[in-house]
Amino acid sequence: MPGIVFDIKRFAVHDGPGIRTTVHMKGCPLRCTWCHNPEGIAPEPVEVLKEIRMGNRTFHQKETVGKHFTVGELYADLIKDRVFWDESGGGVTFSGGEPLMQHDFLLEILTLLKENGIHTALDTSCLTSLSLLKEIVPLTDVFLADLKTLNDEEHIRFTGVSNRSIIQNIEWILQHGYAARLRIPVVPGVNFNDNSLQEFLKFVSNKPFESIDLLPFHSIASAKYKRFGMENAMHDVPSLSREALSEWKAAFEKENFNVNIGG
Ligand code: SF4
Predict the structure, then answer these.
(1) Which atom of ligand 1 is nearest to the CA of 146?
(2) Which CATH number does the domain housing residue 150 bear?
(3) CB 97 near ligand 1, within 6 Å
(4) Is the C-beta atom of 12 inside 6 A of ligand 1?
(5) How many other CB atoms are found less than 10 A from the CB of residue 251?
(6) CA distance 121 to 99
(7) CA distances to 25, 49, 226 from 59, in Å
(8) Which of 22, 28, 100, 157 to mutate to test the pocket of ligand 1 (most atoms within 8 A of CB)?
(9) What is the pLDDT of residues 220-242, one digit of tens each?
(10) What is the pLDDT of residues 24-41, one digit of tens each?
(11) Containing domain of residue 28, as a range?
Protein backbone atom coordinates (compact mmCIF):
# COMPACT_ATOMS: atom_id res chain seq x y z
CA MET A 1 0.00 0.00 0.00
CA PRO A 2 1.48 3.41 -0.93
CA GLY A 3 2.10 6.10 1.68
CA ILE A 4 0.92 9.69 1.42
CA VAL A 5 3.50 12.39 2.11
CA PHE A 6 2.86 16.13 2.04
CA ASP A 7 6.39 17.46 2.48
CA ILE A 8 9.99 16.29 2.58
CA LYS A 9 12.28 18.73 4.37
CA ARG A 10 15.97 18.33 3.68
CA PHE A 11 18.81 19.54 5.94
CA ALA A 12 16.58 19.68 9.04
CA VAL A 13 18.61 20.26 12.21
CA HIS A 14 15.88 20.29 14.88
CA ASP A 15 14.29 16.88 14.26
CA GLY A 16 16.78 14.56 15.95
CA PRO A 17 20.58 14.17 15.91
CA GLY A 18 22.71 15.51 13.05
CA ILE A 19 21.43 16.66 9.69
CA ARG A 20 18.14 14.98 8.89
CA THR A 21 15.64 14.49 6.14
CA THR A 22 12.17 14.91 7.60
CA VAL A 23 9.23 13.20 5.93
CA HIS A 24 5.85 14.76 6.75
CA MET A 25 3.14 12.16 6.42
CA LYS A 26 -0.55 12.94 5.91
CA GLY A 27 -3.25 12.34 8.48
CA CYS A 28 -3.60 13.15 12.17
CA PRO A 29 -6.16 12.04 14.78
CA LEU A 30 -5.62 15.19 16.87
CA ARG A 31 -7.00 18.66 16.22
CA CYS A 32 -4.62 20.96 18.08
CA THR A 33 -5.91 24.52 18.01
CA TRP A 34 -2.40 25.83 17.27
CA CYS A 35 -1.44 23.24 14.60
CA HIS A 36 1.44 24.51 12.44
CA ASN A 37 0.80 21.94 9.71
CA PRO A 38 -2.97 22.10 9.14
CA GLU A 39 -2.46 20.84 5.57
CA GLY A 40 -1.25 17.55 7.09
CA ILE A 41 -4.37 16.76 9.12
CA ALA A 42 -6.63 15.27 6.41
CA PRO A 43 -5.49 11.72 5.53
CA GLU A 44 -5.92 12.13 1.77
CA PRO A 45 -4.29 14.59 -0.66
CA VAL A 46 -6.21 17.88 -0.80
CA GLU A 47 -6.47 20.46 -3.58
CA VAL A 48 -5.80 24.06 -2.60
CA LEU A 49 -5.64 27.35 -4.44
CA LYS A 50 -2.16 28.79 -4.23
CA GLU A 51 -1.93 32.59 -4.35
CA ILE A 52 0.89 33.94 -6.54
CA ARG A 53 1.63 37.66 -6.53
CA MET A 54 3.45 39.31 -9.43
CA GLY A 55 3.78 43.06 -8.99
CA ASN A 56 0.30 44.31 -8.19
CA ARG A 57 -1.44 41.32 -9.80
CA THR A 58 -2.57 38.18 -7.98
CA PHE A 59 -2.96 34.79 -9.66
CA HIS A 60 -4.45 31.60 -8.28
CA GLN A 61 -3.02 28.22 -9.18
CA LYS A 62 -4.39 24.81 -8.16
CA GLU A 63 -1.98 22.77 -6.06
CA THR A 64 -2.34 19.29 -4.60
CA VAL A 65 -1.03 18.87 -1.06
CA GLY A 66 -0.05 15.24 -0.53
CA LYS A 67 1.58 12.77 -2.88
CA HIS A 68 1.49 8.97 -3.03
CA PHE A 69 4.81 7.13 -2.73
CA THR A 70 5.60 3.46 -2.77
CA VAL A 71 8.18 2.39 -0.19
CA GLY A 72 10.75 1.98 -2.99
CA GLU A 73 10.04 5.44 -4.43
CA LEU A 74 10.33 7.16 -1.06
CA TYR A 75 13.53 5.29 -0.20
CA ALA A 76 15.08 6.23 -3.58
CA ASP A 77 14.25 9.88 -2.91
CA LEU A 78 15.57 9.87 0.67
CA ILE A 79 18.81 8.01 0.05
CA LYS A 80 20.13 10.92 -2.06
CA ASP A 81 20.85 12.63 1.29
CA ARG A 82 22.93 9.78 2.71
CA VAL A 83 26.24 11.66 2.49
CA PHE A 84 24.87 14.38 4.81
CA TRP A 85 23.56 11.83 7.32
CA ASP A 86 26.86 9.95 7.34
CA GLU A 87 28.91 13.12 7.81
CA SER A 88 26.75 14.52 10.60
CA GLY A 89 25.40 11.48 12.46
CA GLY A 90 21.95 12.27 11.08
CA GLY A 91 19.27 10.22 9.39
CA VAL A 92 15.57 10.23 8.57
CA THR A 93 12.77 11.60 10.76
CA PHE A 94 9.11 10.81 10.18
CA SER A 95 6.73 13.56 11.23
CA GLY A 96 3.30 14.72 10.23
CA GLY A 97 0.51 15.01 10.67
CA GLU A 98 0.90 11.86 12.69
CA PRO A 99 3.17 9.26 11.04
CA LEU A 100 1.63 6.40 13.07
CA MET A 101 -1.64 6.95 11.16
CA GLN A 102 0.06 5.20 8.21
CA HIS A 103 1.33 2.36 10.34
CA ASP A 104 1.85 -0.32 7.66
CA PHE A 105 3.72 2.01 5.32
CA LEU A 106 5.79 3.37 8.18
CA LEU A 107 6.71 -0.13 9.29
CA GLU A 108 7.93 -1.01 5.79
CA ILE A 109 9.99 2.12 5.19
CA LEU A 110 11.52 1.98 8.68
CA THR A 111 12.49 -1.67 8.08
CA LEU A 112 14.19 -0.76 4.81
CA LEU A 113 16.05 2.16 6.39
CA LYS A 114 17.26 0.04 9.32
CA GLU A 115 18.35 -2.77 6.95
CA ASN A 116 20.59 -0.16 5.34
CA GLY A 117 22.02 1.12 8.62
CA ILE A 118 20.21 4.48 8.61
CA HIS A 119 19.33 6.28 11.84
CA THR A 120 15.58 6.77 12.28
CA ALA A 121 13.51 9.12 14.43
CA LEU A 122 9.76 9.43 14.91
CA ASP A 123 8.16 12.76 15.74
CA THR A 124 4.83 11.59 17.12
CA SER A 125 1.90 12.44 19.33
CA CYS A 126 2.22 8.82 20.61
CA LEU A 127 -1.51 8.33 20.11
CA THR A 128 -1.71 4.71 19.00
CA SER A 129 -2.42 1.26 20.38
CA LEU A 130 0.26 -0.49 22.41
CA SER A 131 0.30 -3.40 19.96
CA LEU A 132 1.15 -1.09 17.03
CA LEU A 133 3.70 0.78 19.13
CA LYS A 134 5.45 -2.50 19.96
CA GLU A 135 5.96 -3.16 16.23
CA ILE A 136 7.46 0.29 15.64
CA VAL A 137 9.84 0.63 18.61
CA PRO A 138 12.58 -1.80 17.48
CA LEU A 139 12.86 0.13 14.20
CA THR A 140 13.04 3.61 15.76
CA ASP A 141 16.33 4.93 17.15
CA VAL A 142 14.74 7.86 18.95
CA PHE A 143 11.21 9.04 19.65
CA LEU A 144 10.44 12.75 19.61
CA ALA A 145 7.40 12.38 21.83
CA ASP A 146 5.03 15.35 21.81
CA LEU A 147 3.08 16.08 24.97
CA LYS A 148 0.80 19.11 25.04
CA THR A 149 -0.55 19.10 28.60
CA LEU A 150 -0.82 16.71 31.55
CA ASN A 151 -4.34 17.94 32.28
CA ASP A 152 -6.68 15.54 30.49
CA GLU A 153 -9.67 17.92 30.40
CA GLU A 154 -7.54 20.62 28.82
CA HIS A 155 -5.99 18.09 26.46
CA ILE A 156 -9.44 17.12 25.21
CA ARG A 157 -10.44 20.78 24.96
CA PHE A 158 -7.40 21.86 22.94
CA THR A 159 -6.65 18.73 20.85
CA GLY A 160 -9.96 16.86 20.72
CA VAL A 161 -8.58 13.68 22.33
CA SER A 162 -7.66 12.37 25.77
CA ASN A 163 -4.00 12.24 26.79
CA ARG A 164 -4.33 8.98 28.77
CA SER A 165 -3.00 6.52 26.19
CA ILE A 166 -0.45 9.12 25.02
CA ILE A 167 1.05 9.31 28.52
CA GLN A 168 0.90 5.52 28.94
CA ASN A 169 2.72 5.04 25.62
CA ILE A 170 5.45 7.57 26.45
CA GLU A 171 5.98 5.85 29.81
CA TRP A 172 6.04 2.43 28.14
CA ILE A 173 8.72 3.57 25.65
CA LEU A 174 10.97 4.78 28.49
CA GLN A 175 10.30 1.82 30.80
CA HIS A 176 11.38 -0.56 28.02
CA GLY A 177 14.67 1.23 27.44
CA TYR A 178 13.93 2.99 24.16
CA ALA A 179 15.31 6.48 23.59
CA ALA A 180 12.95 9.44 23.73
CA ARG A 181 13.08 13.20 23.78
CA LEU A 182 10.09 15.02 25.21
CA ARG A 183 8.72 17.79 22.97
CA ILE A 184 6.45 20.35 24.55
CA PRO A 185 4.73 22.87 22.31
CA VAL A 186 4.44 25.89 24.61
CA VAL A 187 1.31 27.78 23.65
CA PRO A 188 -0.13 30.96 25.23
CA GLY A 189 -3.65 30.41 26.54
CA VAL A 190 -3.13 26.62 26.49
CA ASN A 191 -0.18 25.54 28.64
CA PHE A 192 2.06 28.59 29.02
CA ASN A 193 1.44 29.05 32.74
CA ASP A 194 3.14 28.11 35.99
CA ASN A 195 0.68 25.34 36.81
CA SER A 196 1.50 23.51 33.54
CA LEU A 197 5.21 23.98 34.10
CA GLN A 198 4.95 22.41 37.58
CA GLU A 199 2.95 19.47 36.15
CA PHE A 200 5.55 18.90 33.43
CA LEU A 201 8.38 19.05 35.98
CA LYS A 202 6.62 16.44 38.09
CA PHE A 203 6.03 14.23 35.05
CA VAL A 204 9.67 14.28 33.83
CA SER A 205 11.13 13.78 37.29
CA ASN A 206 13.29 10.61 37.31
CA LYS A 207 12.42 9.79 33.70
CA PRO A 208 15.37 9.18 31.35
CA PHE A 209 14.41 11.60 28.55
CA GLU A 210 17.43 12.39 26.34
CA SER A 211 16.32 16.02 26.28
CA ILE A 212 13.38 18.34 26.75
CA ASP A 213 12.57 20.27 23.58
CA LEU A 214 10.48 23.40 24.16
CA LEU A 215 8.67 24.48 21.00
CA PRO A 216 7.48 28.08 21.35
CA PHE A 217 4.19 28.89 19.60
CA HIS A 218 4.65 30.92 16.45
CA SER A 219 2.03 32.51 14.27
CA ILE A 220 3.81 31.60 11.03
CA ALA A 221 1.05 29.14 10.12
CA SER A 222 -1.55 31.94 9.81
CA ALA A 223 -0.84 32.26 6.08
CA LYS A 224 -1.43 28.51 5.62
CA TYR A 225 -4.83 28.64 7.33
CA LYS A 226 -5.81 31.46 4.96
CA ARG A 227 -4.50 29.59 1.95
CA PHE A 228 -6.33 26.37 2.86
CA GLY A 229 -9.53 28.22 3.81
CA MET A 230 -9.36 26.83 7.36
CA GLU A 231 -10.50 28.56 10.53
CA ASN A 232 -7.53 29.69 12.64
CA ALA A 233 -8.44 29.76 16.34
CA MET A 234 -5.04 31.36 17.10
CA HIS A 235 -5.21 34.15 14.50
CA ASP A 236 -4.79 36.97 17.04
CA VAL A 237 -2.19 35.23 19.27
CA PRO A 238 1.34 36.62 18.83
CA SER A 239 4.37 34.34 18.58
CA LEU A 240 6.22 33.41 21.75
CA SER A 241 9.86 34.49 21.81
CA ARG A 242 12.71 32.18 22.84
CA GLU A 243 13.42 34.59 25.70
CA ALA A 244 9.90 34.08 27.05
CA LEU A 245 10.84 30.43 27.68
CA SER A 246 14.01 31.14 29.66
CA GLU A 247 12.24 30.42 32.98
CA TRP A 248 10.94 27.07 31.67
CA LYS A 249 14.39 26.21 30.33
CA ALA A 250 16.05 27.01 33.66
CA ALA A 251 13.46 24.97 35.57
CA PHE A 252 14.12 21.79 33.50
CA GLU A 253 17.89 22.38 33.58
CA LYS A 254 17.70 22.56 37.37
CA GLU A 255 16.40 18.97 37.20
CA ASN A 256 19.52 18.09 35.14
CA PHE A 257 17.82 17.84 31.76
CA ASN A 258 19.40 18.93 28.53
CA VAL A 259 16.93 21.54 27.20
CA ASN A 260 16.55 22.85 23.64
CA ILE A 261 14.34 25.71 22.63
CA GLY A 262 12.91 25.23 19.15
CA GLY A 263 13.49 21.49 18.88
S1 SF4 B 1 -0.58 16.50 16.60
FE2 SF4 B 1 0.68 17.87 15.33
S3 SF4 B 1 -0.10 17.60 13.24
FE4 SF4 B 1 -1.64 16.76 14.63
S5 SF4 B 1 -3.09 18.44 14.95
FE6 SF4 B 1 -1.59 18.50 16.64
S7 SF4 B 1 0.00 19.92 15.95
FE8 SF4 B 1 -1.21 19.33 14.13
Answers:
(1) 1
(2) 3.20.20.70
(3) yes
(4) no
(5) 17
(6) 11
(7) 28, 9, 15
(8) 28
(9) 888 888 777 788 989 889 999 99
(10) 999 999 999 999 999 899
(11) 3-261
